[in-house]
From TrEMBL:
InterPro entries: Bifun_inhib/LTP/seed_sf, Bifunc_inhib/LTP/seed_store, nsLTP2. Residues 38-103 form the Bifunctional inhibitor/plant lipid transfer protein/seed storage helical domain. It comes from the Eukaryota. Keywords: Lipid-binding, Signal, Transport. Residues 1-35 form the signal peptide. This is Non-specific lipid-transfer protein 2-like.
Amino acid sequence: MAKPCNRSPSPSLLVAALMAALVLLSPDGAPVAEAVMCSATQLSPCVPAMTSSAPPSALCCSKMREQRPCLCEYIRNPNLRQYLTSADGRTVMRVCGVPYPTC
């Protein structure tokens, strides 16, 4: 007769089981977090507003919100810093509802 095993399941097995349960129990329309691909070219719709007093377009604001996690990276880049730290750049962020990042 086999002896019963008194070992508890490994932590990685418990995590895997929990993740599987969450996937199975989540509603079909549940939002899924996606990683942001940091690409400064995504902000190209904002260039007219960042280099003049023109108001940002809806597309600009959408891209600005999408790229929000990347703004510190862009501010650290000497080639991009001037656009984001300028008065017009800050205005674009404010109008689009994106807080100026604290890097």
